[in-house]
Write a structure and sequence with these properties.
Strand order of the largest sheet: 6-7-8-3-9-10
Helix content: 10-25%
CATH class of the largest domain: Alpha Beta
Number of domains: 2
CATH topology of the largest domain: Rossmann fold
Number of strands: 23
Radius of gyration: 24 Å
Number of helices: 8
Length: 357
């Protein structure tokens, strides 16, 4: 296992980048703790696979360094970094049996036969392929082959890090849940440093100790699932995390009050002169329908079983509200109020830290 340090790291696919916009990966300075599980989360093209490939050695960064436990490995080949990587699409040896595919990384490093047998059986049980151990990989389904790839990545116990690049794309939904659970159990058991790339917030939030949210080539927040939900540091985090995502409304801030189109909204903290493109952000969970407050029009109500999603509108802008399953949504509920403690203030998309009111 290794502590991974990203020191002044950035990358451009252009030969002579002239500005920050030319960089697919904007400058990063982060320490990722030895033994923690991280998820790189963001939309397609945000830079997460670029970062993963730099960590693995498949890509040389345009600037900066990457260190494992303080040792500079920026120019070290992949084979010398002692990492295991699982890709989005399965990479298996078709002419080998499942058993031999799983055993290959251990045999390649001269492990003893009894240890190899024990690890292969353990991993086969984890990925649900005990019955196929003596079958050739050729002819297996795509999801079965991807399970072999996952197993081969996990079979070694001595790696510095385990890297996963959207590894469950071809896996059926039920097996996705099973394999995520097994990956989490493996992490708790052996304490590997794990980095998991995904665009799926459910995968990220259920797998990782810390989620690294990326947007436009930049890390906009690193935090626990609770931190990302309660205190999104960037409007993209508020929008991307949660279902539905955070409501954002243009506002003017004056001390402990926000004003949205002349309507006063209480804030849980006090703010000085907030400049720029100012917005308030409120999770649908912290908004409720009322007979007073911000006037809205309810467009429809979606009953999802454990709660209702109220799709409303304020001055032509969509606004989502989470209502309890048994809550009555009567014709008199024409306004919405927000929990002041959970109203966030943003300037130019970044969260502003207020002072205790």
């Amino acid at each position: 296992m290794a502590k991974i340090t990203l020191d002044n790291l950035a990358h451009s696919y252009l030969p002579n980048p002239a500005s920050e916009d030319d960089y697919a990966l904007k400058e990063l300075n982060h320490d990722w703790v030895d033994g923690e599980a991280y998820a790189l989360l963001g939309a397609s093209g945000c830079g997460k696979s670029t970062l993963l490939n730099i960590i693995s050695g498949l890509l040389q960064p345009s600037q900066g360094r990457i260190l494992f436990d303080g040792q500079d490995v920026t120019h070290a080949p992949t084979a010398e970094r002692n990492i295991a990587q699982v890709f989005q699409f399965p990479v298996v040896y078709d002419t080998m049996t499942v058993r031999d595919n799983l055993a290959f990384p251990l045999r390649n490093r001269g492990a003893k036969a009894d240890y190899i047998a024990q690890r292969v059986n353990s991993i086969a049980q984890m990925i649900g392929m005990e019955a196929e151990l003596d079958r050739k990989a050729r002819g297996l389904t795509a999801d079965a082959k991807q399970k072999i790839s996952l197993g081969r990545g996990m079979v070694r116990e001595d790696v510095n890090a385990l890297l996963f690049d959207e590894p469950l794309t071809v896996i059926d939904p039920h097996m996705k849940w099973e394999l995520r659970t097994q990956l989490k159990a493996l992490h708790h058991q052996f304490g590997h440093t794990m980095i998991y790339v995904t665009h799926d917030q459910t995968e990220a939030l259920t797998f990782a100790d810390k989620v690294v949210v990326m947007h436009g080539g930049r890390v906009v927040q690193i935090g626990t699932p609770q931190e990302l939900f309660e205190r999104p540091e960037h409007t993209f985090v508020g929008y991307f995390i949660g279902s539905p995502g955070m409501n954002l409304l243009p506002a003017r801030i004056d001390g402990t009050k926000a004003y949205v189109d002349g309507n006063e909204i209480a804030l849980g903290r006090a703010y000085g002169g907030v400049q720029g493109n100012v917005q308030i952000g409120i999770r649908p969970e912290f908004a409720r329908l009322s007979d007073e407050g911000l006037p809205v029009k309810v467009r429809r109500v979606e009953d999802v079983g454990r709660h209702k999603i109220v799709r409303a509108e304020f001055m032509g802008q969509a606004l989502n509200i989470i209502a309890e399953e048994g809550e009555d949504i009567g014709a008199d509920k024409t306004c919405v109020v927000f929990d002041p403690a959970h109203v966030n203030v943003y300037a130019d998309d970044w969260r502003v830290n207020g002072e205790a009111a």
